[in-house]
Every structure is written in C-alpha cells, then in structure tokens.
Amino acid sequence: MPKPFPHADHALQIVRRRRDVRTGRTSIDRVYALTDLTMHQATPAHLAEHVREHWGVEAMHDVRDVTFGEDASKIHTGSAPRVMASLRNTALGLADLVGWTNLAAAVDHYRSHPDHTLDLIHPGT
Predict the structure, then answer these.
(1) Who is most buried in 35, 99, 117, 125, counting CB within 10 A?
(2) d(C-alpha 106, C-alpha 81), whole Å
(3) Could you report how far apart the first and last alpha carbons of the chain are, in Å?
(4) What is the pLDDT of residues 1-34, one digit of tens each?
(5) How far apart are CA 96 and CA 125, in angstroms?
C-alpha cells in the first residue's frame, strides 16, 4: 500500500495560544504541517520560521481577496491575472508606505476620493 504522503519525512503539530485583548479569553489552536526536511536538516526554530513565512504570504492573499475580491475576479486569461495581482500589491504597498495601518480603510478612502490617489505616488504635494 503506498504512503499517503510519500515525500513527507517530518510531521509537525503547532500549538498557538492567543489571548483576546477585549475579552481576556485565551484560545488554543492546533495546526499540522508536513515537510520533506528531516530532523537533521532543520531545527524547530528553522521550521517555525518557515511556517511564519508561509502564513505571511497567506495573510497577504487574504488581504487581497477580502479587500479587492480577488478570488471573484473575472480576469483569467494570459498574463492579466498576474498583472492585476501586481497592481493590487502595488496599491497595498503604497498605502502602507504613506502610513495606513488598516488597508481596507485605505482602499475605501481612495475609492471614495480618487483625486487623493496621486498623494500615494508623490506625498506632500
């Protein structure tokens, strides 16, 4: 019988504890991961770094989908999806550079005030 994950050498259980600052309640979340790295190739700290990097990428995908509705986009042909993702990333990066901490609020602001968008490229003018 074949192994269900033939390239997996290492299985991880990640336990996250979070405290809600509003309610004070603590929640525990368990996440599982597989890797082809052996225990001799990667330390727990190295694996934790990889997991954090992965979730950083996933967080950006979530922001793009929630803020811009990227998953519902009708653009599917040629290089257009990649171009649109680049434009969305650029818009989010510019909003971050000028100090927006809530990117959804930034998108709403510039959608309502398109004349302010040039401030993203040349702030202070």
Answers:
(1) 35
(2) 22
(3) 68
(4) 777 888 888 888 989 898 988 899 999 999 888 8
(5) 18
Band (123; pLDDT cuts 50, 70, 90): low
Q: How far is CA 55 from CA 10, 31, 38, 51, in A?
A: 19, 12, 21, 6
Residues whose CB is less than 8 angstroms from the CB of residue 16 and which lie 6 or more positions away in sequence, other chains included: 28, 29, 30, 31
Is 106 buried (19+), middle (13-18) or exposed (0-12) by CB count in 10 A?
A: buried
pTM: 0.55
pLDDT in tens, 54-81: 877 777 778 888 888 888 889 889 999 9
